[in-house]
Amino acid sequence: MKHVVPVATLTLAAAVSAAYAQEAATPPAAAASAADDNTNQLERTIVTGTRTAKAIDKIPGAINVIGKTELSQTLALTEDATAVLSRVVPGYSESSQAMSNTGENLRGRIALRLFDGVPQGSPLREGTRNATFTDMGLVGRIEVINGPSASEGIGAAGGIINYISRVPTKMGDEFQLTTRITTEGKDDSTGYKVGLNWLRKTDNYDMVLSASHIDRGIAYDGNGNRVGLNTSGSLMDSKSNNFFGKLGFDFGTDKSQRLQFSASAFKVEGNNRYHLVEGNRDTGMTNTSELGTIPGSKAEFNDFKQFTVSYSHADLWGGALQLDAYFARQAMRYPAEDGADRQDPLIAPVGTLWDQSEILAKKKGLRSSWTRADAFGIKGLEFRGGVDLTEDNAQQRLALTDRLWVPPMIYRSVAPYTQLSWDAGPLTLSGGVRREDGTLRVDNYTTTYYRDRINVTGGKLDYAATLPNIGAVLRLPENWSVFASLGKGFTLPNVGIPLRNINKNSKNTNVAGILDLQAIIVRNKEVGVNWRGKKASFGASVYQSYSSLGVSLSVDPVTNDFVMNRAPVEISGFEMTGDVQLTPEVKVNALYSRILGKTTFVTGGPLTKRMGVNDTSPDKVGGSVAWKFMQGGDVNLGFTRLLSRDLNIGLSGEERTRGYTLLDLGANYDWGRYGKTTLGIENLTNKFYVLSWSQLPGFKNYFSGRGRVFSLTQTVTF
Fold this sequence. Notes:
Blueprint: E1 5-6, H1 19-25, H2 27-34, H3 39-45, E2 46-47, E3 54-55, E4 62-66, H4 68-75, H5 83-88, E5 111-115, E6 118-119, E7 139-146, E8 159-165, E9 172-183, E10 191-201, E11 205-215, E12 238-251, E13 257-270, E14 274-277, E15 288-291, E16 301-316, E17 319-333, E18 357-372, E19 381-398, E20 403-424, E21 427-442, E22 445-446, E23 455-456, E24 459-475, E25 480-491, H6 496-500, E26 520-532, E27 536-555, E28 562-581, E29 586-599, E30 609-610, E31 620-630, E32 633-642, E33 645-648, E34 654-657, E35 660-670, E36 676-682, E37 709-717
Parallel strand pairs: 5-8
Antiparallel strand pairs: 1-4, 2-3, 4-7, 5-6, 7-8, 9-10, 9-37, 10-11, 11-12, 12-13, 13-16, 14-15, 16-17, 17-18, 18-19, 19-20, 20-21, 21-24, 22-23, 24-25, 25-26, 26-27, 27-28, 28-29, 29-30, 29-31, 31-32, 32-35, 33-34, 35-36, 36-37
Helix pairs in contact: 1-2
């Protein structure tokens, strides 16, 4: 588990987009990947999630670098892509344990998820399906930039989470074969994985090829009952296939230039053998799953594909150039539902119609940066600038009846930026500005029967924002440092929700005049302190983010679907992390997070309404003890506790969530040429618990968490 280290939410954010090319392409990036074998050393030197490698003690803000050790500890327990975030990142909420990441956020706001720098999903229609997009076995590291950021244009209201693929570090060929079996002791709970990675590195080129297949069984809770299939998509009883390739060539004088290509194809699909059975809150019986399917329904899936081309020149006009072009296509199908908003008497008698929604998102873009050290003849002054071009498309349909639910939306933007950083002895000052100029276009469309078949006039909305940032880091004696930062982030609301909800009572049926489509601009302030000794480290930060027209979620009492509320939102929080090397064999880590969200009861009113679990996570405490009991053998015992909370959330009265504590155990033994054997036990005590966001009434929203899960993994490298 990592401590929070001083890294700029704002300076770092000015260039996260080319992280994957930087890491795979240049000698500094290769060095960073090699340093992954010693994650502490990596943290203290550079962060490769920027367009220019940067010493982390020179950047103001907070970042979590999740390297080889943390990834392997989590993979010993589960393949869930967000489980490691919940365990390691203080401000990240509990994992949904599903194909959907409903209820998950970073510091109370939606984070922008990237894979090798490419955005996953679309903020135009945030379908909470952007967290399951690749096989975690090929991920080399994860960088989490905490707090609102404008670096990627739209989408990063809560921060940026960048999953970075592995990079070859050894000359020649390296193969890694992974086999894995998981079970909860029931026949239908058993699952398996087979994965193969091939890494090759030569003097002139390097490549990564990866393929994997995962078959998952059903899950059981601590009471021995099957867990209910998630209404937005479940990983239980599913299979996934992943193919990934990356090829890079170094050329030119001193091999200062690099051209890199990568392609990824990932699909996780339900087996469609079970159906959800709704629980009963009065009796305490949570949702469960039973054999059988809804007639005519199709399996839910996530189908993500992306392609990138990158070019870098380490010595162009006295600086370093980085260009990254990408294209991505993401299709997401959801489970069948028979709710009121699915009905249409022209198709079937009201109350009898089942339908499944599908979101299709496409995006393409070009990112550029040019960086020069000692700019303008000033020693220690670094200049970075560039222009980012983006086109994002999204729509949503009811697939079984081929009905348009959310019309096609196209967002195009041009975003130039500049950033300066100046090292003056123990002080580092940074500042810059990004200009977001975007346009959203929506064609004419007609709403569904449930929304009164209203003819909505399409139109164009212009989004323009100037997004400055400034920060400072002061390195003090005795390994202490303090930092402060101030800046703005930019995103769009979940545009699809207000568009599909227009009805006869709506005040405006013209897209250009809908208030709910206005941008979310977040102003973020943060101060923090860090200390790093030889055998211990400590970090703490306090932050506050404010948006005058923010977003909070409530539940429609008729459809039980989420309703987006636009009003001022203020989120503040405190994070603290630390670690101690008690002996050469024993290391202890700990973290704590507290998040407070406030909005208004009425338009124009004071910020006195507390934001509930759909928006802000309860207080979290976590930690682990790692024991290297012999050469080649180690054990890790971790815990995560969410505290109970009682909030006054307005007309619906008190929101009470009950906390819980989970223990996890992982053990490894390295047999040398015969590979490494890993035993993982998730939820060691087989505790029964209800997920926090599921403790509130909603659409069939009463889900328990997984009980005790055993995993046995064998990894052979040759």
